[in-house]
Amino acid sequence: MSYSIFLLRFRDGEVVPLDTGTLRRVTEPCLVAGGQEEGFSQIRAEDEGEADLYHESSGESGMSCVTATHFARGAMLGVLSRLAAALGASIVPQCGRTLIFREDDRPHLPAELREKAMLIAPTGDALQAAFDAA
């Protein structure tokens, strides 16, 4: 995949911090290079698909965003879906509709994202279908 997706958590239309411990817990089993301290991780899924994650910490307040780039289709989409769901984050593609996993998240999105946001299951197949529909 040649574009980026952003994992962002919103409350009342504003970006709120993501939990660094959750990022570590979800990505550690598939970590190939980098890590929490570096602000960059390369991860690999069980089918050998990879992704680069950028996740700079904002001190004790956590991370404002996780950016996934150069990600493979297949099992990696499942990893990214599980990560976003665990973080309580929405997936905001570089282009296309914002993806949410719970309808309760819609009112917290910024107004410009709210109406067109798409509700999907937190699975790789659902994420793939959303990308294909864009």
List the helices and strands and how they pair.
Elements: E1 5-11, E2 14-16, H1 20-27, E3 31-35, E4 40-44, E5 50-54, E6 66-69, H2 75-87, E7 90-93, E8 99-100, H3 111-114, E9 118-119, H4 124-133
Helix pairs in contact: 1-2, 2-4
Kindly summarize this structure in a few lines:
With about 130 residues, the protein is an alpha+beta fold. Helix content is about 25%, strand content about 30%.
Can you put this structure into words, describing what you see?
By secondary structure, the chain is of the alpha+beta class. It has helices spanning 20-27, 75-87, 111-114, 124-133, and strands at 5-11, 14-16, 31-35, 40-44, 50-54, 66-69, 90-93, 99-100, 118-119. The strands form two sheets. Strands 1, 2, 3, 4, 5, 6 and 7 form a seven-stranded antiparallel beta sheet that branches. Strands 8-9 form a two-stranded parallel sheet. Helix 1 (20-27) runs antiparallel to helix 2 and helix 2 crosses helix 4 (124-133). The two termini are 14 Å apart. 29% of the residues are buried.
